[in-house]
Amino acid sequence: MNISIKNLQCFLTVIEVGHFTLAAEQLYMTQPTLSKTIKKMEQTLDQTLLIRNNQKVEVTEAGLLLAKSAQQIVGQWNRMYEDMNALTGLRIGRLRLGLSPMTGGMFINMLASFTRTYPGIDVNVLEVGGVAVEKALLNDSLDIGVTALPCSNTDEFNILQLQSYPLNVCVHVEHELANHSCIHWQDLTGLPFVQYNDQFSIGKVISQSCQDAGFKLNVVSQTGQWEFMAAMAKVKMAFAILPAPICKRVTSKKLIFIPLAEQVAWELAFIWRKNLPLTAAAAAFIAQAKPSYKEDS
Q1: How far apart are CA 136 and CA 121, in angstroms?
Q2: Beta carbons of 146 and 130 less than 8 angstroms apart
Q3: Residue 245 in contact with residue 106, Cβ under 8 Å?
């Protein structure tokens, strides 16, 4: 059996992202090439590993068995690779960083500063939601990730809190709530809402706040794209809840953003494994970030 580390990483990325096209983008390869890579693995193993179902990916029993071993193999290889690179004094190496589509642009200056300081370090960014970031960290597919607090696996991670942002309700300028100065959960009773999908921690934060208040949102759609949420609000299909930094990126004059009165916020943090030493590149990244933030371990 001849399956390369690179091919195992391709397989794991498809599972983590849940979509061939998105996984191909993360891997900087074409979707047909990625599909052929997975097909070749299946032929080598004489097993079906993944099933495509309405553009989504389902993992077979054989695929789950391979993933369990592949995570250990790829994780150990990456760690060995980085340990060897550490001997060069960070002249070469790699940082595996997980960011959600909503947060990517927020950290570009930090990433630029890091690459200027360590030009030989390749920064590989996996763009997935906070839930997938946690899973990838536990699988040793990432070194550091960004998520919204609280984590699902708090005991597993060191936490470097970043910044907390208020949440705003996004509605059309002609919406019945458009004249409100702030909005409570009860104001949204029965109104169609576009929620974040299960891969995004912010969706869990919103749902938990509603549950604590004894309120249930009328979810009519789920997505991981804030642009789609804004688009639904723009055509009056549903209201959305967006963090303040994202609201600033929405340019439509047909939308307004009203503060959510509830005590709920988008609290971002860097997280990494407690029981697994950081690679030299990851340790350097955290060391550079720490002066601006506080650590909660």
Answers
A1: 21
A2: yes
A3: yes
Distance CA 142, CA 133 (A): 8
Compute the distance between CA of residue 248 and CA of residue 246 in angstroms, rounded to an integer: 5
- Each residue's pLDDT tens digit, 77-90: 877 777 776 666 67
Distance CA 202, CA 196 (A): 7
Beta strands in the chain, from DSSP E residues, in sequence order: 50-53, 56-59, 93-99, 121-127, 144-148, 157-172, 192-196, 218-223, 240-243, 255-259, 265-273, 294-296
User: Is the Cβ–Cβ distance between 124 and 94 less than 8 Å?
Assistant: yes
Structure tokens at 285: 């990244």
The residues facing 165 across adjacent strands are 266
> What distance in Å separates the CA atoms of residue 158 and residue 269, rounded to the nearest whole number?
10
Query: Each residue of 5-22: pLDDT tens digit?
Result: 889 989 988 888 888 888
Is the C-alpha dihedral spanning 9, 147, 204, 155 positive or negative? positive
Helix (H/G/I), strand (E/B), else coil: 38: helix
- Which single residue is written with the structure tokens 């550079």? 288
- Please give the model's pTM, rounded to 2 decimal places: 0.73
Residue with tokens 């549950």: 211
Residue 252, both tokens: 């439509």
Predicted local confidence at residue 90, as pLDDT: 77
